[in-house]
Amino acid sequence: MKSFAYARPESLNEALALLDEYGPAATVLAGGTDVVVRLRTGRVLPAIVIDLKRIPALRSDIRETGDCLRIGAQAVMSDLVADAHVRSRFPALAEAAHEVGSVQIRNRATLAGNICNASPAADTAPALLVYGAVVNLVGAAGHRSVPIEQFFTGPGRSVMERGELVESIDLPFSKEPYGAAFARATRRYGVDLATVNVACVVKAFGQTRLAYGAVGPKPLLAIDDSGKLANSKCPEEEKIAILECLISKATPISDVRASDVYRGALLRVMSRRVLDEAVANLRAQERVS
Amino acid sequence: MIVAAGEAISIRVTVNGEVRSVKVLSHHTLLDVLRIQLGLTGTKECCLQGECGACTVILNGRAVDACLVFAVEADEGEVLTIEGLASEGRLDPLQTAFLEKGAVQCGFCIPGMLLSAKYLLKTNPHPTREEVQHGLAGNLCRCAGYYRFIEGVLAVAEATP
Q1: Are residues B40 and B102 in the same domain?
Q2: CB distance from A101 to chain B under 8 Å?
Q3: Residue range A33-62, pLDDT digits in tens
Q4: Span between the terminal Cα atoms of chain A, in Å
Q5: What is the ipTM of this complex?
Q6: What is the CATH number of the domain that holds B34?
Q7: Does B77 reach chain A within 8 Å, measured CB to CB?
Q8: Which residues pair with B19 in a beta bridge?
């Protein structure tokens, strides 16, 4: 591996100043599960690596802040899987985080890093999309918040500007009950990138949110407000037509994991499964309450 | 703290209960330092991309791939490697179970496999078979000895009150 300068800033201001000073020659390091591989293969050759892990303002905890659950920039996948709030209120995210890489990867990889990489196949992205997450960014110009559906712009690309860092990710608490589900297809069990991943939220008052990854240049969100998908009296043909419309944003490609046609077929089947599972979860909650 | 490329960094790491001070370069991984500088070659180097788990160690209480952690990131940390698994000359129950179940074939993956198993039982003392499979999914074995690893882990879990 080619050597690089290494900085371990102890404050946000110090980190932002370094980012400003080095510009495109800087690479930031959080969990390192992608960055270290890229440094080793020479895909990135920075003059300096800025390690964010000793910055107290970039927290590693998951906490309630009024109307949302705030996930600190340093929280790793294992933290999400183990967190009681994430498991009970955002189960599709807990499930998605549980499927990322291996336990060794989940113990290092941060949620913030997962979205910064902006992989079209990022497993946490569909869950964040259906829950309406908000990404809190900080940079030299100050703080700004970006809804996750505006965050990704293409493969490996997001709205983040050079010199900006993710500070936290907010998951708003829903005022109405909802059911959620997550599904993922891979070639083998464990430690594989998703061929297709899908998440769904069905709200009690009718809205259905469906998000899917690895079938387009970025993770995609589609929303239906008709209320028909959760309505047991709605004719099957109508539901199929609405689902077809919801998945119509997908533009899958062929690669080593699957052909475009197979991905499209998987998406159709998996969307129906997560919808049915989310509706069943919603009904189960209604029976309890 | 900022160090230039090629400049030595002094780090202090507790390895298997012993405080070790070493000088490293920024791009040296924890795996490099364990194997080359500390001579702890039980931790194996294999894929170098976090796929195979041969380099699994427990860093600050969590199983990690040592090939994906820079040594400087482990500064002030605690590391458990395979050399530290047996205590006072007695094998860890997982090591005994692996021997009893005949889980060891060529042996290359075993250090990583044992540390993943150790971490699994620490976080989940009574896993189901499926949970054991999921917990060991980040460790590859080219002898395909998976069935016996799982039997070994389940046997230890069963013997745990």
Answers
A1: no
A2: yes
A3: 999 999 999 999 999 999 999 999 999 999
A4: 57
A5: 0.97
A6: 3.10.20.30
A7: no
A8: B14
